[in-house]
Structure formats: structure tokens, C-alpha cells
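Fold this: TGFA1 protein
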Amino acid sequence: MSVKAFKLVSAVEREMLMGDKNYINIECIECCGKNLYIGTNDCFIYHFLLDEKISTAGKITFVATKQLHKYLGLKKPVSELKAASALTRLLVLCDNTITLVNMMNLEPVPTGARIKGAVTFALNENPVSGDPFCVEVCIISVKRRTIQMFLVFEDRVQIVKEVFTPEQPCAVAVDGYYLCLALTTQYIILNYSTGVSQDLFPYCSDEKRPIVKRIGRQEFLLAGPGGLGMFATVDGISQRAPVHWSENVIGAALCFPYVVALDDEFITVHSMLDQQQKQTLPFKEGHILQDCEGKVIVATNKGVYILVPLPLEKQIQDLLASHRVEEALVLAKGARRNIPKEKFQVMYKRILQQAGFIQFAQLQFLEAKELFR
């Protein structure tokens, strides 16, 4: 049974990015506030300002205004972009080197600070240093079976720790001192402070692209065997049932209470509250899916789109209108963390009352009595 949880809205059309140059492909994206950054295969970074417009009918559109573009001077693709807004810096991975550039003019920092020998990297969203003017970066090093932790300041970088792994790592997410790693044959949790590691479950990175995604404090989402999206805490346990993805998932993102997944034909939406699939959106040739500050962004090689969530109250009302009382109540309870307490209590009472009348009309008097109570 489907729920309309998201609408897919175009953000950057291909003409804005590449005009008639068909050889240009989007390699990576990053969004920070209204700033949208795109890295391409011909070593350019593009900066757009993204404005959200809402029509009187409630229709949402995005207007992207190009600010500037910058050539990084190499014949290599820009493979990753991450914004460190507290430092007004963009971390750019190209040709195994992370360069710090100014978020507004895309110029490299004057000191030339950079991190060399990085295959991929992740920012620590639950930092341990306590310094608001630095970000903690974990890189998978070009050195075999090596992870390195760095502190990145406005104009300098400092290595903090080097950790060796039992197999070659290929994907990483960070939470505090904990690294969630996809190795060649399995996922593990590694505490880089103590060196203690915990095996999670086997996985063959040669057959499929691993997914490692931090979804909250001390919790990660992983692409498991058999097309399962598995949740794991830093203690190596799962507090939620897995979600059933397709076998060839490319990326995953979180927009509470939903987990969004991308494969080569569809975007699928599962609820974290009951693990059920709620929505399927056809989307061909997608190769990037990520959440940036609450926005869920998808991209093909040529265009960027945003998944706009419908208000939770509207979703709950749609479920009640379809007489899906249990699902509506699960979603309403899950909405508690997104809605101010007083507003939530008023809304929840009204939903219980509506649900009660639906049960009453279906002659389910005991259930109705409980809801009215």
C-alpha cells in the first residue's frame, strides 16, 4: 500500500550546467543552506544558489542561480565534495588529494593546506575534539588497509591517528570515536581510540557497492546481503528490523521517519517505524542519492533533483482517509520528534478521535472505545 511521502522536483537542469557539452557528467554534489555545489568529470566545481518557491496552490519549485564555476587544473574528475560551514570551507577530493577551498569564491586556501593519499573520506558529525572551529575527517588511505583521522582547520590540517584494518576498507562512516567500515568481505565497527573492533556481518564488496550511512547518534544503516537495509549500533546490535531493498541498491539516505534508497530504475521509500515500503518513484539513470541538512537530493549524470517531503499531517490524513488506521497511528507517534510538544498533543488527540470514528463505523467497538478514551 502506498503513501505519498515525497514529490520529486527538478533543481538544476542539464542546460544550466553543461549547455551543449554532452561530455560533461555530474560526479558528486553537496548542499549547505541555499548553496549547492556540483563536481564534474572534467575537474570543475559549480556553485549555485538554490531558492525554494511555493505557489499559492502549494506547489514547490526550485530556482537555481549559477554563482560561479572553477577549474581545479587537473584532468581528473572531482570525486567528492563536503561542506564545513563553520569554517566556510569546501573539502574537495580530486586525484586522491583533499583540497580546502573557500565556499564563496572556490579559491584554494592561501596556505595550500591539503590531505594527500585519500581514496574516500567522511566527516565526523558527532565530533570528539570539542573545538567548534575544526572538523574531524576520516580518510581511507591509499596505503593498504589504513584509515587516518585528521583535524581540519580553516587553513591547516593535522593528522591525529592512523589505524590499520584487518582487510582493505572501501567505505566508512564516523560517529564519535566509532568508525563503521565496509571491508572487502564484511562490515565492522572499530573504535579508533581503543583499537577494539566488532564484526557485524559478511558482505562481498566485489559483487556490490557497499553502503555505510550514519543515521543518528551511534547508529548506522548498511546494505546487507540479500537486498536488506540493515541497522546497526556501535555495540554491534540492531534495534530495528531491516528494510527490504532491491539487490542492486546504489545509495541510501535518511529523512525521518523514512529511509530512501536508489537503484538503477527506482527510488524507494521505507518507513523506519514499521519497515514497510511506502512509496516507489520511477527514476532512471540515477547514480547519486544523499541527504544534506534535511534535503534529500538525487542526481543523474546530467541533472539534479530534490525529493520534497509532504507534511506529515497531510500524510496521516491521507492514511485515515484510506481507513489505514494502524499505519496512521504509527506515523503520528513517530512524528512526535518533528513537531513541538503542545502542537503534537493537539494533533494527536484529533487523530485518535478520527481513528476512533473510523473503527466505530466499521463496528470495531472495543478498538473505537480505546481510541476515544
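The radius of gyration is 22 Å. The chain has five helices and 28 strands.
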